[in-house]
TrEMBL record:
Protein name: WxL domain-containing protein
Top-level division of the source organism's lineage: Bacteria
Keyword Signal: yes
Organism name: Pediococcus pentosaceus (strain ATCC 25745 / CCUG 21536 / LMG 10740 / 183-1w)
Alphabetized UniProt keyword annotations: Signal
Signal peptide positions on this chain: 1-26
């Protein structure tokens, strides 16, 4: 009986040794690498401008000059290209009795450049423009309104070579 038990133990040990020899152990890994990527994209360019200008009331006469008021604007530029901008304006409605000027430019239904900057900073660029209003030949007491349409254009500085 001792021989049977001893044979069984010996045989079991050999089977266990054969079974364990097929198992692989992983090596310790103590270092590693990480790649970080970052993308720079073209940002926004926005125009914020006062939505209303309120001129002081004037009495009815043949020619009514309302004077001038300032309109504030802000160009926010995160385009990555800070080479300047142009701001143009035109009238969005018609009135033959009205004259609207922004700075020295008289507005009509065609766009006129009213502000031009050769350079600007990344971020907010705030400024103001003077708007003047005059009516000629009006005969009615009422509220008169004017619609001004604004357009912002980014400019590029061009180098001239000879």
């Amino acid at each position: 009986m001792k021989k049977i038990i001893l044979s069984a133990m010996l045989c079991g040990g050999m089977l266990l040794g054969v079974a364990n020899s097929g198992v692989a152990h992983a090596a310790d890994k103590l270092t590693g690498n990480t790649t970080a990527t970052a993308t720079v994209t073209k940002g926004d360019v926005t125009l914020d401008i006062d939505s209303a200008i309120n001129f002081d009331p004037q009495p009815l006469s043949g020619d009514v000059n309302f004077g001038s008021q300032d309109v504030n604007y802000k160009v926010t530029d995160y385009s990555g290209d800070t080479k300047g901008y142009q701001l143009s304006a035109k009238l969005g409605d018609t009135d033959a009795t009205r004259t609207v000027k922004i700075g020295d430019a008289t507005l009509s239904d065609a766009a006129a450049v009213v502000a031009s900057k050769d350079s600007n900073i990344v971020g907010e660029n705030a400024d103001k423009l003077s708007v003047s209003l005059e009516y000629n030949g009006i005969k009615e007491v009422k509220d008169y309104s004017t619609a001004i349409q604004w357009n912002l254009t980014k400019t590029q500085t061009e180098q001239i070579t000879e």
